[in-house]
Write a structure and sequence with these properties.
By secondary structure, this protein is mostly helical. The protein is 69% helix and 2% strand. Strands 1-2 form a two-stranded parallel sheet. Helix 2 crosses helix 4, helix 4 packs across helix 5 and helix 7 crosses helix 11.
Length: 326
């Protein structure tokens, strides 16, 4: 989704968009549909782009036709992607499963109390800026940008269009990422783009207020940026660098040596990477059993029946228990 968002921004702010509104709108809609396919709350970029375009329309009513044309084709592209998925799953007799997994279960999963959501929001607002000085400065730079934007400075939309989008985007991404009441780190990856843009804008404004910025100033700014980003390296190493040897690799080696790749295995727990690492498959759609516990009784009853039917029909040759904290 991060790459898709970057492509969308390049299309939206392209100088050539004006002469090919239908094409750029349709491509942007297709990108939005692809992002929506990966996770529904990744549409924050396009929500912010719509807000940005809407404010520009309010400032200049003569842009009404181009506004309507662009977003009409954007919506068409979005619907086209989703229509392709509907046709694909319908052709494979899996339309109901697609609806359940992609939409229904997500909505049930998102049924959280207000207290839970507020607690998640507070944790998010205190955790993300604390990752590094870079993230902190990026968040702090939102406030002066928001002040200029909502004060109605038209120049911000023309001279700093990308900054205006980022000002809309950051709070939208934070809200969408927290809809589930969870604050997993990967939920907030899309916040990086507006944070980087806002930080860059802050540096730009800083240089603009210096009468004659010399090469020394630029080098100093680059050093500050590098130093401020250093904690992100440790954060990346702690969370995303592979750990070898690990329980994953040991289980993988065992499965490759002792099991038949043409027969299924069942991993009980959230460590579903074992399937990919060993090249083995699950006998059921519930390769991750967690959804069996998340939903109301009537949904649970149907899911458990499906699971038991699947593993009875195609019994796994081994069952691997993986505790979440293992």
């Amino acid at each position: 989704s991060l790459f898709i968002v970057i492509c969308s921004l390049c299309l939206f702010f392209s100088d050539k968009k004006g002469s090919h509104l239908w094409l750029y709108g349709a491509l942007n809609g297709i990108l939005c549909g692809l992002a929506f396919t990966s996770k529904q709350n990744t549409i924050g970029c396009w929500t912010a782009l719509f807000c940005f375009d809407l404010i520009k329309l309010i400032q200049d009513k003569n842009k009404r036709q181009s506004f309507l044309l662009y977003w009409l084709f954007t919506g068409t592209g979005f619907l086209l992607v989703n229509a392709c998925w509907v046709i694909y799953f319908a052709a494979h007799n899996a339309l109901e499963a697609y609806w359940d997994v992609a939409f229904r279960f997500n909505f049930i999963y998102s049924e959280r109390s207000t207290d839970s959501r507020l607690s998640c929001a507070w944790t998010t607002l205190t955790f993300l800026p604390s990752i590094s000085p870079f993230m902190l400065l990026g968040f702090l730079s939102w406030f002066p940008s928001a002040y200029k934007l909502f004060k109605g400075k038209a120049a911000l939309f023309s001279d700093y269009a990308l900054t205006s989008w980022a000002t809309f985007s950051l709070p939208i991404e934070l809200v969408l990422a927290g809809l589930s009441g969870m604050n997993y780190q990967h939920y907030f990856i899309l916040c990086l783009i507006p944070v980087i843009i806002l930080f860059a804008h802050m540096i730009t404004v800083l240089f603009a207020n210096i009468s004659s910025p010399t090469q020394s100033y630029k080098i100093a700014a680059l050093l500050i940026l590098c130093i401020a980003s250093l904690p992100l390296i440790r954060h990346f190493e702690d969370n995303y660098m592979p750990r070898t040897p690990s329980s994953y690799t040991k289980v993988r080696d065992y499965l490759i040596k002792e099991t038949d790749p043409s027969r299924p295995i069942l991993v009980w727990g959230s460590r579903t990477a074992i399937y990919v690492m060993s090249g083995r498959y699950a006998p059921t759609a519930y390769f991750n059993e967690r959804p069996l516990y998340l939903f109301p009784d009537e949904v649970q009853e149907k899911q458990w029946q499906e699971l038991l039917t699947d593993i009875t029909k195609d019994p796994p040759q081994v069952i691997i228990y993986t505790h979440d904290t293992a």
